[in-house]
Amino acid sequence: MGDGNIHVDHQEEGLRRRGCGCSCSKNDFLPEESFQSFGNYLRALKETPMRFKDRLLTRSKDSTEIHEIKARSEHEMKRTLNWWDLIWLGIGSVVGAGIFVLTGLEARDHAGPAVVLSYLVSGVSAMLSVFCYTEFAVEIPVAGGSFAYLRVELGDFMAFIAAGNILLEYVISGAAVARAWTSYFATLCNHKPDDFRIIAHSLPDDYGHLDPIAVVVTAVVCILAVISTKGSSRFNYVSSIVHFVVILFIVVAGLAKADTKNYADFAPNGARGIFTASAVLFFAYVGFDAVSTMAEETKNPARDIPIGLVGSMAITIVVYCLLAVTLCLMVPYKMIDVDAPFSVAFESVGWGWAKYIVAAGALKGMTSVLLVSAVGQARYLTHIARTHMMPPWLAHVDAKTGTPVNATVVMLAATAIIAFFTKLDILSNLLSISTLFIFMLVAVSLLVRRYYVSGVTTAVNRAKLVVFIVIILGSSIATALIWGAADQGSWIGYVITIPIWFFATLALKIFVPQAKDPKLWGVPLVPWLPSASILINIFLLGSIDVQSFERFAVWTVILLIYYFLFGLHASYDTAKASGENKAEDGFREVEEVTVSSQNGAL
């Protein structure tokens, strides 16, 4: 087929009509010029190096994400949420299976009663990431979350790699929570979890315990998420209140049975045990980023998002620390049950009836996590599809409900399939690494956003910025490697790497002028806070097992294959046809900004 105006017109019409979302023709999935004929596709493949360079160097603009990209869903999401909704959605997205399942495991095997410090360390890491997310969510209030932020600051390619991993994290964590839901439901019914599962002896044991309840729960959550975001928020609100009443009961009743002798051996494995547990327990904080994807549905993002995100994380950290203290005061850490730590703890002090309250609270919490996760992951996928890195059919927003129906159904179908077949321990081994990687990239993006503006930042200052960020990353990676490889008593390496990180951050503050002030709400203590976020996230990565990195690498390879065969060409064609990016050269076509030194923006 020929090219030129005919194909541009064809694609521009595709940009307008893809919102119908109701058909399933080829053009709903691959409407771009590169896929209109086999010859076009071959030409696109030959141009892969040139197209990759364009997508690697081209960054999006704030206005592009907020207006042009969002408009590709045809219908807008309804602005119905306020800061109160966001606080409860934040709590609902985080406080779930992690605290009820992982606390006992990490207290017994790694940290002992010092598991409270592990929760504090991973909570500080999560809070630093919350601050970084908040500035982006306020200034780029769209459904894409970290994908949109990275597209603006680090370009299409890094955004796609990050988005692919965050979607994997959502699906896997959702499946893990759905499987755990069945386990706690069985406890409530005085049964074993396998009593409610179908044992398929012809399948490997790790994949042969089929879980229909997990599928049913996921389907119900899907219906709730599709019907209404505000309705989902109200359900989560009620569910979270019930959950908090149960948590209050656990803390008060548990402390009434406290024995301070259980704290005699506070940190049996020292600092290494505390940080090893902290890397695993970071999973208990995963989910808050789902709230940032709801910025498009928030009435007043500049006010509501900072209060909602920071407030919910502060409450969550306090709750986790209280629960960790309570558990280890009730039972000696060596006697904690890893499967149902709180239920068995109450049984051990003669309150067997309390296990039903604990199980009911855990079910409420896990239902909230599933619901908020479903809402968040669908919005990620919607915004990715708006750029055509994924099929645009997934970008459809329903005119009546104002929700991304196609993306919600597809993501939860994937979650249900994995939950149906795969055992919880297999799923839990796949968690955390992707999230820490994303949070590190968002912190890097914030440094780029504050210190680099095309046409304003000089070439010398840009070079200094790159050098200092590379040193910050390098010293953080070195610190993590030393931690992962060294003996517990070896501290000499840290005496070298930590000062290098410190002086690189100090040099960034002194020698590179900030090129941009935040328009509405800004992260305090830049560059120290995002630099500390980079260090802590990479450090926690150093405590994760090698197998997790292997799985991370395999998934990244799969993403790269998809990107170079489909995503790259679809997004390139769409950007050119819509005039989304009119490149000058490299990073020079960058962004719409508020430049502190030029126009005195606040």
General description of the model:
It is a single chain. It contains 25 helices and 2 strands. The protein is an all-alpha fold and 602 residues long. Helix 8 packs across helix 23 and helix 10 packs across helix 24.
Brief summary:
The protein has 602 residues and is mainly alpha-helical. The chain has helices spanning 5-17, 26-29, 38-46, 48-57, 62-71, 83-94, 97-111, 115-139, 146-153, 156-188, 212-227, 229-256, 270-281, 289-292, 301-330, 341-348, 354-386, 405-421, 424-428, 433-451, 459-485, 492-511, 528-541, 546-578, 596-599; strands at 198-199, 209-210. Helix 8 crosses helix 20 and helix 11 runs antiparallel to helix 18.
Strand arrangement, major sheet: 1-2
Major sheet summary line: 2 strands, antiparallel
Mean pLDDT: 81
Helix amount, in percent?
55-70%
> Which blocks of ≥5 consecutive residues have pLDDT under 50?
1-22, 582-602
Tell me how many strands there are.
2
Please tell me what the overall shape is.
Answer: globular
**Rg calculated over all Cα atoms:** 24 Å
Strand content: under 5%
Question: Class by helix and strand content?
Answer: mainly alpha
Please report the distance between the alpha carbons of the first and last residues.
Answer: 51 Å
Helix and strand pattern? HHHHHHHHHHEEHHHHHHHHHHHHHHH
- Oligomerization status of the protein chains: single chain
Number of helices: 25
Keywords: Amino-acid transport, Membrane, Transmembrane, Transmembrane helix, Transport
InterPro entries: AA/rel_permease1, CAT_C
Protein name: CATIONIC AMINO ACID TRANSPORTER 1
Subcellular location: Membrane
